[in-house]
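User: quick one, fold this
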Amino acid sequence: MNWYLAKIVYQIICDKGFHTPQFDEQLRLIYAEDNLHAFYKARLLGEHEEDNFLNKLNKPICWKFIDVSEIHKLDHLVDGAEMYSKINEEVSPEIFIRNTRLKATKLLEESTLQFIKLN
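Assistant:
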């Protein structure tokens, strides 16, 4: 058995779909015999996690499973190993950098508070 990293893609459809198209790409760990089994296991997971619900404005939301777009065998689980990389092209690099640092600050604050609560 081996560990695989699978990218599962969903389309998010709000109300009647008159909005900018949205897609959620999720990276999931899959434990399987080989690439083929990992693919089908990831596909079953994606299908089972499709969802329809009402948002807080009582509008229907649909998470529609599209498919599994990538499977990568993880030969070794190593501390600090790169699991995912995406290159962004940004119109305003200053805003991107600022937002990244704000997210990091918020994450650090939340992690610190959770650590204090547990200890």
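User: anything notable?
Assistant: Residues 88-119 form one domain.
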